[in-house]
Amino acid sequence: EIVLTQSPATLSLSPGERATLSCRASQSVGNYLGWYLGWYQQKPGQAPRLLIYGASNRAAGIPGRFSGSGSETDFTLTISSLEPEDLAVYYCQQRFQWPVTFGGGTKVEIK
Amino acid sequence: QVQLVESGGGVVQPGGSLRLSCATSGIDFSGSAMQWVRQAAGKELEWVAVISYDGSHISYADSVKGRFTISRDNSKNMLYLQMNSLRPEDTAVYYCARDGGYCTNGVCYFDYWGRGTLVTVSS
């Protein structure tokens, strides 16, 4: 199975700062057709919410400060200017190969 | 308004059984693949099982294969997870999720999730 490794485990930043979250796959999660990597946000006590699909496409209603990038095995979720409500754990997920796998998560803390 | 509501969780002894249900509304249930995902306390998300829109294709995580059974009733917009031979490591919040809505090249992502139901396996 494809293992997803997220780093850092915890990110502590002040409002307005830029957050860069990394997701590294044990093998490529796509091909010439595209990259099959999604990002989810899970706030305390809530279910996950889809932020990014296909590595770089924002889901409806997701603020423009969230963006995804990357290819092959290295992907990044960027929050351009951190808001207090962005306190959450962020998970990457690959849909290239069964079984579906998730990364271990990055916890974003607001200073 | 989209709603996915899980039920059926509780405390069960090792070796016991539980049946989880997921009642859905506001989505094209009979046209959607559905998933179960679980999360142990303080841990990451773990995919459990998937069922295609018509029930013809089913897949399980190795950790639950042979013990769990996913099923659906499209006439009732309901998803189920029968869990047998439960182990302490099955203790988690179980989420149902819709697989669809956001797709690239036919590969979709989990766009709607329920709030989860807690399963505790303990003697």
Helical proportion of chain B, percent range? under 10%
Content-based structural category of chain A: mainly beta
Could you give a short account of the major beta sheet of chain B? 7 strands, mixed
Number of E-state strands of chain B? 11
Protein structure class of chain B: mainly beta
Order of helices and strands of chain B: EEEEEEEEEEE
Taking all Cα atoms into account, the compactness measure Rg of chain A is 13 Å
| Chains forming the largest contact | A-B, 27 and 23 residues
| Unreliable stretches covering 5 or more consecutive residues of chain B | none
Largest sheet of chain A: 7 strands, mixed
Descriptive keywords:
heterodimer, A: 111 residues, mainly beta, seven-stranded mixed sheet, four-stranded antiparallel sheet, 13 strands, 52% strand, globular, B: 123 residues, 11 strands, 0% helix
Structure overview:
The complex is a heterodimer of chains A (111) and B (123). With 111 residues, chain A is mainly β. Helix content of chain A is 0%, strand content 52%. Chain A has strands at residues 4-7, 10-13, 19-25, 30-31, 34-35, 37-42, 49-53, 57-58, 66-71, 74-79, 88-94, 101-102, 106-110. In chain A, strands 2, 6, 7, 8, 11, 12 and 13 form a seven-stranded mixed sheet that branches. Chain A has a four-stranded antiparallel sheet with strand order 1-3-10-9, with no helix packed on it. The termini of chain A are far apart. The model of chain A has no long low-confidence stretch (mean pLDDT 96). Chain B is mainly beta. Chain B has no helices and eleven strands. Chain B has strands at residues 3-7, 10-12, 18-25, 33-39, 45-51, 58-60, 68-73, 78-83, 92-104, 107-113, 117-121. In chain B, strands 2, 4, 5, 6, 9, 10 and 11 form a seven-stranded mixed sheet that branches. In chain B, a hairpin with a 4-residue loop joins strand 7 and strand 8 (78-83). The model of chain B has no long low-confidence stretch (mean pLDDT 97). At the A-B interface, strand 6, strand 7 and strand 12 of A face strand 5, strand 9 and strand 10 of B.
